[in-house]
Amino acid sequence: MARANRLIHETSLYLRQHAFNPVDWYPWGAEALEKARREDRPILLSIGYAACHWCHVMERESFEDPETAALINEHFVPIKVDREERPDLDAIYMDVVQAMTGSGGWPMTVFLTPDLVPFYAGTYFPPIDRPGLPSFRRVLTAVADAYRNRRSEVAATVGQVAAYLRDRRLHPAPDYLLTPEILDRALTALSNHFDPIHGGFGRAPKFPQPMVLEFLLRQHVRTGDARALAMVELTLQRMARGGIYDQLGGGFHRYAVDATWLVPHFEKMLYDNAQLAWVYLAAFQITGRTLYRQIVEETLDYVRREMTDPEGGFYATQDADSEGEEGRFYLWSAAEITEVLGPEDAQVFNRVFGVSEPGNFEGKNILHQARDPEGVARELGIPAETVADVIARGRQALLARRAARVPPARDEKIITAWNGLMIRAMAEAGRVLGREDYCAAAVRAAEFIVSRLEVGGRLLRTCTGGIPKLNGYLEDYAFLADGLLTLYTATFDPRWFVEAQRLVEAMLRWFWDDEIGGFYDTSHDHEPLVARPREFYDNAIPAGNSAAAEVMLRLAGYLGDADLRQRARRILTPLAEPMAEHPVAFGRLLCALDLYLAPPREVAIIGDPTAPDTRALRAVVDSRYRPHLTVALARPGDPAALESIPLLQERPIVQGRATAYVCQNFSCQLPTTDPAELERQLAAP
What we know:
Blueprint: H1 13-16, E1 26-27, H2 30-39, E2 43-48, H3 53-63, H4 66-75, E3 77-82, H5 87-101, E4 108-112, E5 118-122, H6 136-149, H7 151-170, H8 180-193, H9 210-223, H10 226-241, E6 255-256, E7 264-265, E8 268-269, H11 270-287, H12 290-306, E9 317-318, E10 321-322, E11 325-326, E12 331-332, H13 334-341, H14 343-352, E13 365-366, H15 373-380, H16 384-403, E14 410-411, E15 414-415, H17 416-433, H18 436-452, E16 454-455, E17 458-464, E18 467-471, H19 474-491, H20 494-511, E19 512-513, E20 518-519, H21 544-559, H22 562-572, H23 576-581, H24 587-597, E21 601-606, H25 612-622, E22 629-634, H26 639-644, E23 659-664, E24 667-668, H27 675-683
């Protein structure tokens, strides 16, 4: 067996996957950076993540090849980085890759000077030349030659890149007026970009865009615009029926490589499933469609079954590959389905799920709901109930058969930010659906993060195998605070409110910069890098500034804190015009703007949370999607709640019954103990 390199001692699964490469890999750190400076060697920086299919391909083709490894070891200091552990490095160097090449992705391949400034960059490089894409060995040879023999050319590129990174952070921000017109223009832009046949936005590859879908639902609630709801419903239904959704085990794959949602990129990410569960839940509240509730429950049940640590935290990802093949775990032949289900059931099941002898992906079948069960029942002349029974039996039987296969690798890294997103989804689903098990899962995850990944009032980024490490980033604070505020509204346990408030205070202390009027992604005491990242675009996960703006507005609703609203406004105003013109890149920030523009409304409920009269008032609040409403609840005279949450103060119980106060800017209507009157007050303009 090959000798292990330094990555064998890392906690990251992605880094350990490269521990037996013949490449003399270093993790990012002082040893590697000092070696580069001491020996005046360029750095080969390779960034990826454990579930990345093309990262595995490049490893097999190049990093496991002895000749390629020898070339790397002779001329470079090779550093391997897990982008999920180090989003700061990923953001800085992806910015440069996109500027240099016009596109980006993973694996990311960047060549740096010992001062950490890039001078050549790309993503995947093949082992042999392809049209428009040089082989990796050709790149290595050319870069090494340029650094050794054409240093003036390298210096010129370094100067341009350094100026780009510097200037990108120093542009003065315009100050736009924040009006509902921005939201309306964003809706129009999304309509123009919408796929009216298959749902979603743009062409292949097609991403779910849960933040954009949430914004559209908010637009529907704000204006009653049927167009916004129709775009969301078509997209949600097409995704739920497509191969991007795991029709047997629940949960969503990363994205579809086609425009029809059929062929997924098979990895599963915690953050996608958290955000999509949230959107399907909101759509269920608005429409009452049982399909949406089914998708929420199947997705969250998948997370609880396959992505939850015994101590309560949520794991990061599942790989696209198993046994060296992309998607192998999820694919089926028609013969195997017949073997498992029997010919009669297989005939019905295969019609519903689009299974054929030739297959729809490399000779096998990606299960997708190709036909409505009712239509299949009519075609075959059998009762619809029979088809439903076949589907239920078939899913269970095939799931059991699949469990005997070699599963995709699971990255058991617990990431604070992503756990915040899933805590938010679990807690909200528990509240809306009355699922105590989801609330309990959210509580366990929150307790894990707070007890294991919070040290001395500061958050850490990850925990793998019980080992917490790395300073937290802005997104860790913002996502977790948002998740804990949502957990408060599900449990009304004031400790989660207090913890969320404390995290926001820490976020302001360590990441806010008054000169720029916003947050940096790294704390003020973070290690010096070639640039200090500051992300505003919402990508697969929200930008830290987007989530921070929204959580500050949510917290301000409880505290009546004008300073928090003002700070959120400072983030929003420079981006008003970009939001209107390019809404796909600002989905979560548009949600924050929607919250900022909405008239602040609050509900304070005083009563025993377990008593029927209190539950009746809560049911009114929980019955609809109300994204602009701030809700607090406390037992009469509960000192912890009353001390922590000003919204609950001076709200006496009326005639010994649970009492609700509907307020706007803390100015309240007459208190009521009647659920019907509470509904009337909430429905009033």
